[in-house]
Write a structure and sequence with these properties.
single chain, alpha/beta, Rossmann fold, Rna Polymerase Sigma Factor, Chain: A, 2 domains, 7-stranded parallel beta sheet, 5-stranded mixed beta sheet, 47% helix, binds nicotinamide-adenine-dinucleotide, binds magnesium ion
């Protein structure tokens, strides 16, 4: 039996992972499941998978979790340190699907113990790509991409030589506002931004899709994951969300990965890698679909993309500042303290200020990453208040 853990198991990616594991329950020995405030669901999952340990990230949820699991034999714990401890428990495979920078330390712990790290938490690569890759490399851990675009690139690269790669194109649906006139974007509300035309995801990543901050994060994720320079990475708007990414080679060939917008494909690929197994996803009927369309991803409509390129070119701890500023800008937008287009303004102000202070060129240690994360959050709060 394969020992597995799921971090963020009550979220959108977590539930899809749970679904695949539960369908084949006898094949897995579930060590740890972690969640946040959705304690009832966490307890249900822990019982259904017969997990050894269930952890809520929040101490004020512990009593509820204890009650929900009393008599079940499932060990319970709470808090950030308990989530990190759970990530140190030996497994063969772990899903990192906590949302935000909170996924960084658990991801590092999984890499340290040498497990296969299925990485949905793109924030950890954006904040601390080099650190995470070095930790994995030094401990015989393998990082497998779960973000659909990166899984698509990873699959298109099987058997290929990286020297032959001219460019990587990741697609974007364009989010909720792809057909809105640019000057109307300023008035967009959190409710409008939290609906996605094609994918069913958590609230934060859905809003990030509308602002293209999600794609901006994914450009940086591509840069980190595949060690490609910024000039070789492009974003392309593809409203149907059926092609997830394309890899362009030096002989002019483009290898496209086509599939339904169902994260269970990318999760399942990472779960069974290096093999392919049957997965319960829709089989596309291309004759019925008829046409696939594309539009440029323009920087004037999506300033987040331009900022991501600057972050890749500057390097150092810029990714950590970018992610933290973006997370806070998103909090302020959700709380209606700033408008939709102000999110990019806030992030740009934070980066410009920290770059001008030379505050992002220290070594990439965990302490430095966490310090920059805290600094950028404060700067974002100040910028949002202006
Ligand atoms: P979600 O909001 O649906 O779920 C997040 C999970 O993290 C939940 O289990 C929640 O309880 C937990 N959590 C929240 N705050 C936490 C904290 N401070 N400490 C510990 N746990 C906490 O998010 P999601 O959409 O499943 O996304 C998860 C990650 O996967 C993100 O990094 C996202 O960018 C990435 N991702 C998601 C999708 C998707 O289709 N949803 C696709 C690609 C990548
Ligand atoms: Mg994606």
């Amino acid at each position: 039996m394969r020992r597995i853990s799921i971090f963020g198991s009550t979220g959108s990616i977590g539930e899809s992972t749970f679904d695949l594991i539960q369908r084949d329950g006898d094949a897995y020995d579930v060590i740890a499941l972690t969640g946040g405030r959705n304690v009832a669901r966490l307890a249900e999952q822990a019982k259904a998978l017969n997990a050894q340990l269930a952890v809520t990230a929040f101490d004020d949820c512990l009593d509820e979790l204890k009650d929900a699991l009393s008599g079940s034999g499932v060990e319970v714990a709470s808090g950030t340190a308990a989530v990190a401890e759970a990530a140190s428990r030996p497994v063969d495979w772990a899903m990192s699907a906590i949302v935000g920078a909170a996924g960084l330390v658990p991801g590092l712990r999984i890499a340290e113990q040498g497990a296969m790290l299925a990485l949905a938490n793109k924030e950890s690569l954006v904040c601390a790509g080099r650190l995470l890759k070095q930790t994995a490399g030094g401990n015989a851990s393998r990082i497998l991409p779960v973000d659909s675009e990166h899984s698509a690139v990873f699959q298109a690269l099987v058997g290929e030589d990286m020297d032959a790669v001219e460019r990587v194109i990741i697609t974007a649906s364009g989010g909720a506002f792809r057909d809105w006139p640019i000057d109307k974007l300023r008035e967009a509300t959190p409710e409008q931004a939290a609906t996605h035309p094609n994918w069913n995801m958590g609230q934060r990543i859905t809003i990030d899709s509308a602002s293209m901050f999600n794609k901006a994060m994914e450009l940086i994720e591509t840069h980190e994951f595949f060690d490609l320079p910024a000039v070789k990475i492009e974003a392309l708007v593809h409203p149907e969300s059926l092609i997830h990414a394309l890899v362009g080679f030096n002989d002019g060939a483009l290898m496209a990965h086509v599939g339904p917008p169902d994260m269970r494909h990318a999760i399942g690929y990472a779960l069974h890698w290096p093999r392919r197994r049957d997965l319960p996803v829709e089989r596309l009927d291309l004759a019925r679909i008829g046409a696939l369309t594309f539009r440029p991803a323009c920087d004037d409509r999506y300033p987040a993309l331009r900022l991501a390129r600057e972050v890749m070119e500057t390097g150092g701890l810029s990714g950590a500042a970018f992610n933290a500023a973006k997370e806070r800008a998103l909090d302020h937008f959700i709380a209606r303290r700033i408008g939709f287009t102000d999110m990019a303004v806030v992030v740009e102000r934070v980066l410009t200020r920290l770059w001008s202070q030379d505050a992002l060129s220290q070594d990439m240690t965990l302490d430095n990453v966490l310090a920059v994360d805290a600094l950028a959050r404060n700067e974002a709060d100040a910028a949002a208040a202006r």
